[in-house]
Amino acid sequence: MRKFITLAAIASAIIAAAYFTACNNNKSEPQADNKEDSIKRVIARGEYLANHVAPCLDCHSKRDYTKFSGPVVPGTEGMGGEVFDQKLMGIPGTVYARNITPDPETGIGTWTDDEVLRAITQGISKNGDTLFPIMPYVNFNHMAKEDLMSIIAYIRTLKSIKNKVPTRQLMIPISMAYPGPALQKSIDANMRPPESDPVKYGEYLMNAAVCTDCHTPQVKGQFDFSRAFGGGLAFDVGTFKVNSANITPDSATGIGTWTEERVMNKFTVCREEKGYNYDPGKQNTIMPIVSYAGMTDNDLKAMYAYLRTVKPVKNKVEKYPQ
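RE: above sequence
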């Protein structure tokens, strides 16, 4: 494992080196200190993204649905094993979230950074297998490489958990599900928009958070992107059923009348344990609001700004079907 932590550190050091060159700082000790600080900042950025923006830890850990929004069970971070199937998400078969902890036998402890990057941006695993696109590599394929490498650096720091995950069982050839044409061959040119442009930055965050996958209705198992963010996708976790909300700016059936403050409150209430540490029963949600609550106010506001610009979709959703 030491080898791969070093690789992540090297990637971080390159970022730091660019900063030192720009500053023309040739003093050895301050450079060493700043290099270490830079590595910490990279890992901290990855921790923020993996826990509060991109659904890395929500999908690859255990979630406790006896509490509102199913927060991640402490101690299970990255161990995998969560089931995604036809009942839950309309998948043609059963897919299991993989173990992404540094365990060398059952996790990604022997994977190089490039192999992890290929998996999360191209959907190709270390041994060349194609990943089912419930893993949102189409979305991550459009993220800035700097952010993706930060996530990888953070994942390297997770506690190693030995957990052999079952093999997926599909009712169709994986080639039928692989979204090849939607993928860029290289992500090197991807840029994170400046925060000074809240609409573009919000769009970037919405992509990283994979909001379309849950809030876009499907027709015969395919997303209807003409009604993107229109809601109505059904989820059945066994103990409750819930349909995703219409989050377009349609005034009658979406969030067109919602103020920025109202949208913010939807998340910030879960920043304190009392906001989610209760059993809502059948009034629960699969949406990881507890995780998204950890986003900064500015990031939440940027996502709201972007949603105000998407096409309004008239689609009245019954949140809790019988």
